[in-house]
Each structure stands twice: as structure tokens, then as C-alpha cells.
Amino acid sequence: MQLLEERIRRDGKVKEGNVLKVDSFLNHQMDIRLFREIGKEFRRRFAGEEINKILTIEASGIGIACIAAEEFDVPVVFAKKTQTKNIAGDVYKSQVESYTHGRVYDIIVSKEFLGEGDRVLLIDDFLANGKALEGLCELVEASGAQLVGAGIVIEKGFQPGGDIIRSKGIHLESLAIVESMDDQTGEITFRRQEG
Ligand code: 5GP
User: Fewer beta carbons below 10 Å: N end or C end of the chain?
Assistant: First the structure.
């Protein structure tokens, strides 16, 4: 997605440890006009797919998922991160190892909001090692819902998450795929995508 790539090149900051900071338009301050274009692009890429729910993970996926959900005209459910040992009530639970914080945490979704009959699109801001998406996939599987695909704003193509998710046969669409980034020069290159 040209507009997104241009914005990443202009405003993205490459940090040590293969972290791309996009706080000025995606992860802290949010450019809603850009979000709307992102939502439309997800709609285009999943055109023809029957989707009745979007599932994301707190916190940074929520804003993007909400704007995308307007395009799909479906509700958004976000998986909550929790450190509570004994989670009361009826929830699906899985574990995620955080890329940016390096620790493992539980994610939960209430059984009330995900279940058989749901056709789910996963949405998140970044794809790195694929742990967040895998955790969300596990929740969908546990619930008996159907996974339709996953939409990612920025995939770091030099990390393994994309290959892991695609090798499972999951329809993955990443709007920008970073091929390389250099924290010394700040240079960012992107993988060419069809269409
Ligand atoms: P994964 O689980 O695929 O390893 O990492 C995905 C999650 O880690 C995303 O939800 C995102 O919040 C965070 N993340 C991974 N890499 C980056 C990065 O380069 N920049 C930012 N801002 N977040 C990242």
C-alpha cells in the first residue's frame, strides 16, 4: 500500500533490536484519515469473504480494528491481556510472548463474544515473530469459530512470523512488508506486492 509505505519512510523511526517506531501516526498519535485508507484496503483485500467479526489484541490493534470494522460493518472484539492467575468466568485463554516487552502473558476473550458460527478476521498493527497472531488463532480455534484470515498493517518480512502464519494456510494480508531496515542510517526498504 503506497500511501502507508510513504508514511513509514517519512515518519517511521528504526530503533535498536529491529523495532520500528511509528508513534506519530499509528501507535500513539493516530492518523485517522490514514486508518480509514487502511480499513478500505483491508476490505478490498478480503472482498468476497464472509466476515461477521473482527478480533484484535489490546492495545495498539484496537484503533485500527475499529476503523476497519466500519468498512466491514461488523463488531470488534479485542483479546485482553491479563496477569490474573485465576480468571473467573467463561473465557478462552492462550499465551503470548511479547515481542516488545519480552515477557509472556495470557490473553483472554469471553465465551460470550466468540463462538461457533462466527467468521473471524484477525487484525493487528505489526507482525514480527507471529506470537500475537498465533495466540489469537488459538482463541478462535478454541471457540469453534471459523478463521477467515489475518490483516496486518506492517509485517517485518525479515522476521519469521509471516512465513509461520502463511505455512499454516492462513490467508494473511500485510499492507506493508518491510524487507530491511537499518538503525544506523534509518533506511527502510519494502517488499514488492502484487496488485
Ligand atoms: P509478534 O507477536 O508477531 O512477534 O509481534 C507482534 C506484536 O509485537 C504486535 O502486536 C506489536 O504490538 C509488537 N511489535 C512487534 N514488532 C514491533 C515493531 O517493530 N514496532 C512496534 N511498534 N511494535 C512491534
Answer: C
